[in-house]
Every structure is written in C-alpha cells, then in structure tokens.
Amino acid sequence: MKRPTIADIARRAGVSKGAVSYALNGQPGVSEATRKRILAIAQEIGFNANSAARALSGARARAVGLTLCRPARILGIEPWFMGLISGFEAELGAQSYALTLQVVASPEQEVEVYRRWWGERRIDGVIVTDLRENDVRIPVLQQLQLPAVVIGGSGEAGAVTQIWSDDGGAITEAVRYLVALGHFRIARVSGVPDLLHTQVRTKAFNQVCASLGLTDAVTVPADYTGEEGSRATRRLLIGGDRPTAIIYDNDVMAVAGLAVAQEMGLSVPGDLSIVAWDDSPLCSLVHPPLTALSRDVSGYGAQAARELLNAIDGRRVGNVQAQTAHLTPRGSTAPPRP
Amino acid sequence: MKRPTIADIARRAGVSKGAVSYALNGQPGVSEATRKRILAIAQEIGFNANSAARALSGARARAVGLTLCRPARILGIEPWFMGLISGFEAELGAQSYALTLQVVASPEQEVEVYRRWWGERRIDGVIVTDLRENDVRIPVLQQLQLPAVVIGGSGEAGAVTQIWSDDGGAITEAVRYLVALGHFRIARVSGVPDLLHTQVRTKAFNQVCASLGLTDAVTVPADYTGEEGSRATRRLLIGGDRPTAIIYDNDVMAVAGLAVAQEMGLSVPGDLSIVAWDDSPLCSLVHPPLTALSRDVSGYGAQAARELLNAIDGRRVGNVQAQTAHLTPRGSTAPPRP
DNA sequence: CCCCGTGACTTAACCGGTCAAGTACACTCC
DNA sequence: GGAGTGTACTTGACCGGTTAAGTCACGGGG
Lengths: 338, 338
Description:
The structure is a homodimer.
Chain A: H1 6-13, H2 17-24, H3 32-45, H4 51-56, E1 63-68, H5 72-77, H6 79-94, E2 98-103, H7 107-119, E3 125-128, H8 137-144, E4 148-151, E5 161-164, H9 167-181, E6 186-190, H10 196-211, E7 218-221, H11 226-237, E8 245-248, H12 251-263, E9 273-277, H13 281-285, E10 291-294, H14 297-312, E11 319-321, E12 326-328
Helix pairs in contact in A: 1-2, 1-3, 2-3, 6-14, 7-8, 9-10, 11-12
The structure holds a DNA duplex.
C-alpha cells in the first residue's frame, strides 16, 4: 500500500506542498478555511508525516534512547527497569515520542551506542541509568552535546540534567525502624558496589549504624541477582553471631534471602527480619509479605522522561530530587525473639 | 558538535558523495585502494550514516517495533516480556537494528500505533504478542503489508509469519507427571482467557484430564497478576475437595499461590504440589523452588526476531515451531500425602 | 490614481543519503 | 587505428518533509 505524502494531500486540495506543511503544523500562512480542508483530507486518507523526512529537514527525530546494561538473566526478573520503562512511556507516548531500547553488556558499549544513535540522528536524547563513579558516559554525553537525564546521582554528572532520590535518608529510616523494634545485629546485602547509588547507601548505612552504636553492622556486596542474594544471605546466617535483620538493596535478593532463611528452618520474622528495597508487587506476593522501602518507580520514570523532554527543548533544569523511598512495614519485620 | 556527513568524507578524500556511498556500502564502483582510504577517513572522524536520510531514500528504517499491551503494574514483574526483549535484542543488535517500544492499553491502541509507525516509516516491521481470537491486529497488518511475526498461535494469523510452541503438549506432560506422582485432583489457574494460547492450554488440559479420568479437573481464569493468582488459589483451596496439585499459567501466579498455601498452613509439596509455567529465575528463588514448564524465553525471542528480519527481507517463512516447554521438576512437586 | 502593507499562497532550496545514468580513461583485440 | 569493453569514478535526480524568499491580489490611505 502506497503511503500518502503531503504531495498527495496537496494535489487533492489543489494547493502546494508548502501550504500543506503550514496547515498541518498550525503555522500561519494559510487561511482558516484551507487549513480545515487540508486537515480533513489528511484525516481521510490517513496521513502520517514521514518521520525520516521530518528528521532530515532539521527537526527532531521524536525518539529517545535507553540502554540497559545488565545481563539478560537479571533484566527479566528485575521489576525496576520495567517500572521505569512504563513510566517513561506514559510521558513519551503523550508527546508521541518513541522509546528506543538497546541491551548492552558494558558501559563502554553504552558509549558506543550513544555515539551511533547520535550520529545516525536516531534519537533526540537519552536516559542514563546505573551511574558509576567517574562514569565514562558523562564526558561523552557532554562532548556530543546529547541531551540526557541521569537517573540517580546528584551532582556527579556535571552539567547533565539529573534526577535522584535520597537513598541515604531512606536507608537511615529503615535502620532506625529496625533498631526501634529491638534489633542491634543488622546486616545489609548490597547491589553492585561500582554503582553510585550503592555507595551512597553503604555510606549512609555505615553512618547511621555507627551513630546508633551498632558495631557489627556489615554490608555484603552482591549483584542484584537471586543467586548472589542467596549466597550472601547464607554467608550471613551461618556465621556465629548471625544478624537478626537484613536489609536488601532490591526485592529480588530479598525474596531469595527469605527462601534461604526458610530453607535453614529460620522463621521470618521470628528469627530474622527482612527489609527489601524497591517495593514491586513481588514483595506482597511472597509469604510473609516483605517490609519494603517503597517508591513510585514508574512515577520516577515519568518524571525523568519529563525532564529529558525539557532538556531536548533546551529548557535546562540542573538537578531534580524525586520522592524519597518510604518504609512500608509488612509481615517480614518484627521484634527479634529474646 | 557538527555531525559528519558523507559530503565531509568526500571532501577529505577528494572524491564525490556517490563514491563514498559505494565505498561505505561495499558496493562495486570504487577501487580497493579508494575504498580503504574512505573507510579509514570515516573511521577517523567517527562517521555514522544519518538514518533519516537513509530511510528517506527508500532504504530501511532499520528499526522494528514492539507494543506491550498489559497494565504497567503487571509488566514490571512479568519476566516473560523482558526475557523476550533481551532475546530480540541479541538478534537485532547484531544486525544493528533498533527496537522501538510502546506500552499501550488495548489492542485497538496497538493498531493505532502500528498505523502511525508505518505511516511515519519509523519501523520496518513489528513483533506481535498476545494473539487473541479474531485478533483485530492481523487484518491491519495485512492491509498495511507491514512485515510482522506473530508470537504464539499457529495458523490463526493468516498469511503473517508466525512462531509458536506446543503449549498443549507441555501441559499434557505436566498433567501426566502429576498423575504419575499419584495426584488425581488437579486444578489449573490460567492466564487471561481471551488470549489464544490460554485457550490452547485450556483445551489440552481438559482433554488430557478427561482421557486420564480426572473428572474434577477445573481451570480458574485469572490474569497473570499475583493478586489474581492469590485469589484463584484461595478459592481453590477453601473448597471441600481441594486439589492436591495446581498448575499455573505463569510463574508470578505460582509464587503467589505458594504464598497463599503457606499462609493457610499447608505444606508444599506435602499438601499441595505446584507447577509453574515459564521458568524464570523467580521459580528457583523461592522456597521450595518451583517445578516449572521451562523454555528458553530469550531464545524464543531471538528466533522471532530472526524470522522478522527474514520477513522484512522478503524471505517469507510461514510458520515456525519453537522448542516445546519441558518439565523441570523441583521441590514444589511430590506425591500427595495419603 | 498610485503606493504600500498584508494575507494567502507558490516556488525552490535544503537536509543527507542512494542509485541510475553518464563520462573519462586505460586496455585489449582484430 | 579504431571499435569495443571494463573500471573507476562523477553527476544529478530523488526520497518527503521544512522554510526562507518570492509572487500576487486586494484594500486602504494619502
């Protein structure tokens, strides 16, 4: 089926291509009557502007890019990204921007993809997640002057727009809550230590534990996968002075930890309290349902997309703080057994 | 930063734009020496062909589209889609095709998105999931002559390329296995009944149960969410003659079912055996780990992407059967207690 | 009556590739 | 020596939009 172009509309309306372009874009230069006639014809023949032609003549590509840098096996089960993506979509769809996705294996590959996308004029901007210390992607974004918004990390991305939430505050709340319940041997299973938000959380965790006099607070690094979550949990629980509460950096590891505890015959929350991060439906799915640090992930995504569209339109906003995760107590936390 | 074009390369190499185009695309018409020189310059200045210009002059957009038609809250936790997506990517990335994503609310919206994408020449083809009976999308795909591959559903999509797996065979295997263990009150919690693969499974389930003389085999429809999975499970377990085994249409509902059983004080697998569909890491994460109908979801996705690229290149292949899901026994199934 | 301003268009260049058709030159062969 | 055949390019049209610049008719003011 031959797809209609503005030339087709022009012919049928008996005007020039230019007039059609003005009419469709709401620009002055055509009378109201002609505009209506042209719009009616466009509607009738199901016209959609060729995005390539539009992009070619200097306009936007009307697409933004997202790279995901986690192994496929983690992506599938990690609710975080899908939550983010559906948030992006809510915002982008409304402005009829498309979202282009690419799964990569390393930050270096991400840089390659950014360069390629930008060179191909395929996208107008990118959303950057999983910020690291001295992230290789930031200088490239600046060099390319590629509009971007960085999720997580406040101030670490130089001049690039950033959106972040106060993870330190959230973890502090979680620790205080556990201490209030009577716990004093609290451990933590963290995500990938290279990631900036992991470091923020670790620092805050150490700080609040120190300030509350919890001397044996320990963080075991893991990688967000269930397997590593199980391994870390096992390591913590077979020790002599085993913790009475564990905080996990995501819900997948928390669920895995719960399974390990059950497998070892420990009761949750009787023998072990569990706090998860990122309250996906997964947390309420298991038994007992997990106490979690909740936040509106898809709202976070929507906000990020909004900021990116701002950045693309040249309205720069330096640094946006999103809602802080708040504690949602459920059945997996209780005072420790005496 | 000004992005380099073939004109820039042409100037530096002292040849015409046309020669550069031939050189970059591996076409005859330039000498080997010139080609090398041009490629070196392209490499040096970091050239990437403008995809809009390329698409405009009749070539491919080098992008394929995927619409996801499930509520955001399900998408996040449903490992199936992310598995598929990472499979697509593995294949598309290798051919440097981009994947464009759109989350929609209804099949009608999906149709709209297809029309828009096609009109905008934004994509070369689409991947269609969640086939329904008399699916409204199929005639539109044919009308637009939009290359497509339909996942799930063999024969129901007319002339469109399809890829499917033998879900009936898989569920038959699961029922036979449970019967061999000694179960005869087997229930099933299904996915959305409108979806074609749900119907295939239901039919096969009823058939094998009838042939094995299981008279009270019942299917409770749900919608793939944890909440519905819990509700359906509760409904099944509070009845008088409660089943000793339940088969779930996805792993999220199976995990929810496990939690309900534990909450009701039933032991799994002692009092209740559980079989999940789509063996994501989630199944091995919980305690006990779930027996599942496994398949290589991301391999399935890769195969679908391959078929789509074939269809785009005009190499039509009618109907491809993917690997049948096979039973992976784990801790959630055992003979029923006498 | 003429000039000027304005609204409603048309014209044509341009974006950055692709590709059919044309050209220039070397080389072979009768 | 001239026709014929390649090879290695160049030229220029074209894809489908956008947009600056140009045209033309009409109306009002001096």
